[in-house]
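Work Package 3 committed the consortium to producing structural models of liganded targets before the mid-term review. Because experimental data for this complex are still outstanding, the team generated a predictive model from sequence and the ligand definition alone, so that downstream docking and mutagenesis planning could proceed in parallel. The input record is reproduced below exactly as it was submitted to the modelling pipeline, together with the SMILES string for zinc ion.
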Amino acid sequence: MMNRSEWAQKAAAAALLVLLAACGGGDGKGEGDGEQANDSATAAAAPGDTGAASGAQPGQTANNLPAGPTTQLPPNELGRIMVLEYHRTGSPEGEFVRTLENFRKDIRTLYEAGYRPVTMRQVLEGNIDIPRGTTPVVFTMDDATRGQFYLTANGEVDPNTMMGSWMSFKRENPGWGPGGMVWCILPAASHPSNFFGETKDRDTPREQREANIRKKMEMIVRDGHEVCNHTLYHARLDRAANDQQAQDWIGIGEDSIKAYLPQDYDIVTFALPLGMWPRNKPLAWAGTYRNGKRYENKVVLEVSGGPSVTPWDTRWDPHSVDRFIVGPGQLERQLQRWEQDPTNRYVSDGDPRTISYPATMAQYLNRSALGGRTPREVAGAPAAAAPAAGGAQPAAPAAGGTTGR
Ligand SMILES: [Zn+2]
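The resulting structure, written out as tokens with the ligand in place, is given here.
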């Protein structure tokens, strides 16, 4: 069982390690304590122009949700997906800071361009059940900061957080689907990364603080999001005093998160703080702590790298999954690249039992990873693509674009 005072002590002992400076590269203040309240209310209330596309879809997804805007791109399930990486809300923007307004814009833009959220667990298990003509996208939320997910005094999700924005978008656009966000949590960090930073620990009675955490974790699980371990308090694993300390940071971190999760919840995803590996690299994948207790991280998230391959691809390595940092202009540029040249963009065939890909990608098919799914080579190069059915994106020339890496 978890020992709260033990990890609390560890956290206190790690006085120098203020994760926010670490993760955010010291680029400023800017927790989004609601400073974008006004814009966001309008943004969230704006009607989505998704009607045309949903109407154009012959069917619905397996979850009986409207398909929402899709593309007419031919399927390419050996294409790449973005594992987006968000940290804090605030202003000005930087590599690790996104305004709440732009986070909302990201969701809407992705939806209208035919992207659908899936969790890392879904990717790992190959459980990517999204409508034909759409592209999976993973949202990873690092560091459990206040601007990500916060409960107001009456226990409601603050609408001026990333979680609140997501919920409001999903209410208006059910086609956004059942997939969710991957919350990479630091259970023993200090405010404002102490489990979504309600208050400084000493400012809220322990029972109330724990009740808040429990409630948030319940919502995360209930809404189809995923919980990811990001170590106890964001210490750099390469600076651990020894192998055991690195394993403790990971293993006790996982235990401390699991104390708030259903008993059978299996955490499969782990995010390396700052992308730094332990000196003994395999300890990021599995290890032991506390008298032989064992952890296993089936997915290890890097801190950068660009769009990632998926499990059917010979180049897939779940022990080192690239992420896409949503810094200023970066997501916009990548979406533009894939508009111009979708060769490397994953496009679903709408049937989770088949893996469809163009002949040009056949060399990357890992048959041993199909797990009973049927491979299907499709005619037509992805570059000869039609524009998005939703009409939100202009038709793009097939040639001349750069490929998304
Ligand atoms: Zn982090």
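Reviewers should note the following from the model. Residues 206-222 form the longest helix (17 residues). These observations will guide the Year 2 experiments.
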